[in-house]
Amino acid sequence: MPAPFAVTHESPFRPVWWAPTGLAQTIAGMRASSPMPPLRLEILTTPDGDELQLHWQDTADPRAPLVVLLHGLEGSRRSPYVRATAEAAARHGFAFVALEFRSCSDVPNRSLRTYHSGETTDCAFVLGTLAARAPDRPLLPIGFSLGANVVLKWLGEVGDRAPANVLAAAAISPPYDLGSCGHRCDTRLGGVLARHFLRTMIPKAIAKERRHPGAFDPAAVRRCRTFRAFDELVTVPVFGFRDVDHFYSSQGCGQFLPAIRRPALLVSALDDPLVDPAAVPHAAVAASGFLHARFSKRGGHVAFVAGGAPWRPRRWAEAQALQFFAARLAAAGVTVPVPASSPLS
After folding, report:
1. Tens of pLDDT, residues 264-273
2. What's the predicted TM-score (pTM) here?
3. What torsion do the CA atoms of 117, 121, 123, 124 make, to the nearest 10 degrees?
């Protein structure tokens, strides 16, 4: 029996009055508070000859702590939480960079493979590259939904071998268990959650097959209406899983949490429409000295809208993550001058 949800912070989440339910929160969280300003583009060539796009918000101090954002399924630098995280980073005097997963930038990636919920090699490559460039610069990865799964799984995979300058991490609405998450998306509300994402996943997969003929059956992919069907047809053969159950059972971050050896903040809501509350890892958090929970009864999925108007929502989780980072830096003796004003104001 999981422990009751409890907020372990002096500023608990309270949903804005016009988005009281998990679904309403989730929908409200899809709206950005304001447009994303121009970011500096860097293109990294991967070890397998593909390309990744990094989008930077720099600071005057090249040694300032760097927040590294990994977005959610079918997200990009344009996702609302990217703006919110960049704003929060600027207020704390941190630099910021958003990694766009393969196929999620403006230019299609070269190789057949794209990304999936547990694919951590690109995360490892980017963080390793950034760590090697500036070994004394604190790195602070933060992931949202799928990106949260990637961050936590990678931390569990590397354990004590994580780069020394990765000082802390944050995960907002991670799925924990991919099988239960996929099933909820496929079945709840008539499957509308899965179809929302498949609207872009299917055309991208069909375009990918045109460039790599025979990789999978494009006609069957076009008929997909569930994550399970899509993953069976595309994710399994492209990434070499035995079957869809092997993919789901092996790639969820929940099983990797006990091996994490860096302070990591987990932010989850009981009313998340995508994530089964039974999958929230109360026992793993209680048993670990590295996992820190901000679990709330409400908040939806990657939302946690605490105020503002429907056209300008004010988000809570990103601020919690940056406060957590600031506290971990202070504990490590890292002093960061807070800017007089945010460059995004």
Report:
1. 999 999 999 9
2. 0.94
3. 140
